């Protein structure tokens, strides 16, 4: 298979590396064909998880193989995107059990990162809903694994960042819906104390919840937010105007890289004030199409250009519940003092820890911050954020990471040794490797 050397990056556009890429045209062509390689779906992991010496582009291995419209199960090749799946299943009355904040990600990527959504506190992460996987190993044999068959390999692969083999096919359980709409309600919170109180208020709990945080607010307003809760709307509850056929709105595109100076503390502060006021006013329940509720940023193609050519780091961490308020307070204070404007800051409540050996979620709160990559000071800032997260027993999300070091990773992910034993059984020569795995020394024993 021909290889093409070209510069690649993750969605954050940092780092950029020259990688040899292969693009198999058919499922049968998926194989480990280089000394080291990593599969790459849509390139939507933010850092260097899908970069390496050779990347196997799976975007053309994207057939849907079987959809049981009665039982609500789907089997598909790993390169298919969530957007392609939703286009098929939603009109048939089904929805994804878990979805991240963009639908332009591959099915295999969702397994590899064990992505979570706004319903993790109720339904867990993506891997909890996978029936089985066909995995292509380093010796090019193909093996089926699930929670009951080759279970160790399955839980090493769910959240394993593509390092146990190439995820070839995935079977998934879906959830039933009766309309493409969500019934949504917004709750404004004046500060972080009020934000946590909203999350912990059982009367406000819903199937999905997420809070947008004004990360530049300080003092008594530190952590002010808008909590957005919702659930799938029944068709009988919709007004007549929404019960007619729905057309998908075409996405607008960010046509060029924004100058680095365009996003500064003043412009972000003005935007945050506008957004907090506009969204906080929506105190009464309203209906929103699922694309608007789950994927607001998908409405702008290439929104990552907002941060300019130097890109950005998305720093996402989770803190166990007991220390979450103190840790999130410290993280927001540290970011505010840094005067590095974060266009996006999101807080979610997570449920019980998932079974994937390297899965990110644990019971607590997860905070995601976009930090423009403008100078070396960003790396120093993330080290300070790491120290806060470590002090509170938390961890950083590998699918977003570009800056963590190996020592910190090993403290944050205590099941690494267990994962490594499985990895070395199926890939003893380390043929599946990425820039992330090399940076974090994932293939090495604990020292």
UniProtKB/TrEMBL annotation:
Protein name: FAD-linked oxidase
PROSITE patterns reported in the protein's UniProt record: FAD_PCMH
Residues covered by the FAD-binding PCMH-type domain: 13-177
Cellular-component GO terms for this entry: membrane
UniProt keyword Oxidoreductase present: yes
An example molecular function term from Gene Ontology annotations: FAD binding
Keywords: FAD, Flavoprotein, Oxidoreductase
PANTHER family, alphabetized: D-ARABINONO-1,4-LACTONE OXIDASE (PTHR43762:SF1), L-GULONOLACTONE OXIDASE (PTHR43762)
Lineage: Bacteria, Pseudomonadati, Pseudomonadota, Betaproteobacteria, Nitrosomonadales
Pfam families listed in its UniProt record: ALO, FAD_binding_4
Origin species: Sulfuriferula nivalis
Gene3D superfamilies: 3.30.465.10
